[in-house]
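Changelog-adjacent note: as of this version, every example in the card shows the full chain rather than a window. The one below runs 146 residues end to end.
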Amino acid sequence: MSPTQHRIYKRNTANGGDVTENMALLLEQVAVHMKAAHQAIISKDVEKRFKESERASFILAGLKGALVRLDTEQAKTADGLQRFYDTMETLIMRMNIFNSAETAKSLEENFLTLAQKWRQVGQQSNQSAFSPPPAAKLDEKVFASV
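Full-length structure tokens:
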């Protein structure tokens, strides 16, 4: 995941919110819904499976709606994420159509992995944002004359 993916959401983030942590939390919530859908498939609870997958799709739709395309670099990354979210929604739909526990489990694992990647991007971004610049090499002659 590139720093650009971090920036395409940054302008639409609510005041005081860390975009990478918010993304990780949202993706973890999608994973929770996929886990519940997986359990519903196993227990043959069609209504619960549908409700849980609908909740996951709702979160993905919100993420798609929050993408920012202010410049070419952001637009390219946002388009890639748009395709990713569309693919995930298609997989959720297929999970429902075929009542596939394997697809539900795979989606859960993938969303958890993606949440972890967003956290890594946030940590890298925070480290670079708050890292002091490298110390200048001191000229010993200047201090010798003092």
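Structural remarks: The longest helix spans residues 101-130.
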